[in-house]
Predict the structure.
Amino acid sequence: MRHTIWSVMSSSIASISLGKLRKRYRNRVRLATALFFFGMGFSFATWASRIPSIKSQLQLTEADLGSLLLALPVGQLLAMTFSGKVVTRYGSRWICALGLLLYAGCLPLISVSDSKWELAVALTLFGFFGNLCNIAVNTQGVYAQFFFEKPILGSFHGSWSLAGFAGALTGLVMLSFHMSVFYHFLIALGFVSIIVVTNTKYLVKTQSPKREEESSYNFLKNPDKTLLWLGIICFFGMASEGIMFDWSGVYFKEIVEAPGAFVVLGYTSFMISMASGRFLSDFFVARLGNRKVLIYSGLIIFIGLYTAVLFPYLIPSTLAFMLVGIGVSNVIPIIFNAAGNHPTIPTGMALTIVTSISFLGFMIGPPIIGYIAEITNLRYSFAVIGVFGLIIALLAQRLSQFKG
């Protein structure tokens, strides 16, 4: 009897210990994945926070800056043709590590560019490694989701947005201390390197699900309409987001005429609201549904941008940029989740398709702003981009994926 009780107790203790180990492991996987999202967002935010400084340093006009920003999507397009295949073949774990190091490694290269063509080359590389890193990190996010019953993808994108706020805040501090762009970017590279070194071993090792490896689906030969429309909705959402990253500082400097370090206030307020919105994304979706949240998000983007256009003053524009942050915060988590749950196309492949389409908007939107601003002015260009919010709302209402 005593032996039986001891056996039962030993089995229970072992079961509890194993359960704790599994919980600890999956939480560490989640933390490592979130930190890679954070590192990727911090790298981009570091660049975005010093765009006004680089613009002044090279004496660029709005058209010059718009043209140079085209180098980012060019780099992305170059990487897009094989990023998914590389991640599938070699595994997203090591591509995450290599991609993030190279992505952050482009920052010092950008800072030492003394001419337009040097900056164009550096930004092309930045876009190239950004795409590679993005596909790998989002694939890791999908794999990490397999360990949890509740949705966690929104929190990963929240980590990316939180990194944007951290990058903006760091930029504000660097500007306050009059630190050069080079040393600022070098510090950012060191920080991201620490993330990679301390967290790579905790990423999921699986290269890809078996059914994904065996899939012969080719989007170019047989485009799936659902994925195409999901990508288009996300295109407009990420175009709005990319514009806020690249032009919010310039808008506050030239249109709002914010004094001194307050130039980054619009960008910072945008990032705070977007990060908060993404951490709350799953909460709102559970109560309102994907369709309503997307419609409301599109309308909020529209209202926010037009508020900044009509009232280009410090406080109204700051509040307006917060509205835009809330609006764009829900688009990516909802779209990526819908793509990842496609009934017939493997998760990783579906995400690669939608991510590739959507990040074109993230990269192409900012250059468009520059060209429109050169013809008219920056206020009118923001008004044009405000229409993107209405397009998101209309497409979300019509797409059968979000009915009900």
Remarks:
- The mean pLDDT is 83.
- Residues 2-49 form the longest helix (48 residues).
- The two ends are 58 Å apart (CA to CA).
